[in-house]
Amino acid sequence: MKIFISHSSKNENYGNALVDLLIEVGISGEQIIFTSNDAYGIPIGQNIFNWLKNRINEKPYVIYLLSPEYYASVACLNEMGAAWVVENEHTMIFTPNFNLSSYEFQNGALDPREIGFFINNQDRLTAFIESLKKSFSVSNNPVVINQKIRKCISCIESFQTNTQKTITRPSEKSLLTVEKEAVKESKSSEIINVENSKNKPDSINRFFSDLLNDKLKDEEVLLLHYIIENAKFKLGTGWQESNEVENIKAWEDIEEIGNTLSRNYSAVLRRFEMRKLTEVSNFSSHGNPKEVRIIDSVQEKLLDLPESVVNKINEVITKNQNDGLPF
Fold first, then answer.
1. Positive or negative torsion for Cα 38, 42, 43, 45
2. Which of 1, 58, 224, 278 lies 20 to 30 Å (CA to CA) from residue 165?
């Protein structure tokens, strides 16, 4: 049996890291098909489509390296469909920037309910290597495997453009009007103050005042961080809540934060509603809320937070990262 890595050529860096890991834990390079690397790709003189078709018909173990680039590629989707039709044994591995709730993934050939994992999740990567032992020759030395997985994850982390876990302005900032930008620049050094601020609703001022005075629960601060870091101003509720929780769990894995937010998502969403920070933005066919959005005035505030607020949020993030450590 061979291992076929179905991927977008734009993600060859992740694919090469995965190939290196497979070889370093004992799998022969001759058993790996990875077309972005000549050493494991299509032989000279072969018709690319016929060659790939024949390899897929041999029913290799397929690794779907899923990413936004993968679903934007017609060739990748054709490859996925061909492999799916012959019912290959497979595993879904997600690049760090992949959105599990994307329409393409939720409505594609692969079952979105099937367990996959993000490529930089050490525990899941370890379990995956262990699962390969039933079909491939893999080292039985746990120390070697652990070392190689850590090396792989370190390599993957080097691909990220933002390795520091600090809060940055989301890309939506570019959508603000010039007039708003000018106003915000003039107030860039402004510290949130309940008594002196007259232009914002009391509920918003109270929220940030409570934040600065350590009166918020950790999950409230973590949801704020989740919203800012992902520029995600719309959140699932009702029957969409489970999808949002899965997204949060994946984000917690990447951020190495404990499960405080995913475990308490329902409660913290209700607290945001009670604080009048959200409003219903979409309903189900039966008229039940399925999505809420952060109100505009809060969104504007989140795009230009004072340093004091950023520091306070980072304190909570660091605390939960430390709480999530196994020792």
1. negative
2. 278
